[in-house]
Amino acid sequence: MIDDKFIGMTLAILASCAIGSSYVITKTGLTQAAEHLALMAMVTNTCEVPFGGVECLHVSKHTGW
User: What letter would DSSP give residue 63?
Assistant: First the structure.
């Protein structure tokens, strides 16, 4: 039978790989979402956060204020 230390080492390595890949997938998804939100803000010239969030303040391009 396989020693317990080899089973424990295998489980530790697999858990480490799972946590690392989860971090990479999450980071990639959040980066893409932020880029998409920034692009949409440029296109619509607004910075509204979805689901009733707080709007950003814009600096006016007009000098007559």
Answer: S
Q: b/e map of 6-17 (b: 16 or more CB within 10 Å)? A: eeeeeeeeeeee
What is this structure's pTM? 0.53
Q: Which residues contact 49 (CB under 8 A, 6 or more apart)?
A: 55
Q: Which of the pair, 50 or 40, is modelled with greater confidence?
A: 40
Record the tokens describing residue 60, joined without a space: 């006016």
Confidence of residue 41 (pLDDT cuts 50, 70, 90): confident
Query: By the 8 A CB rule, do 22 and 30 touch?
Result: no
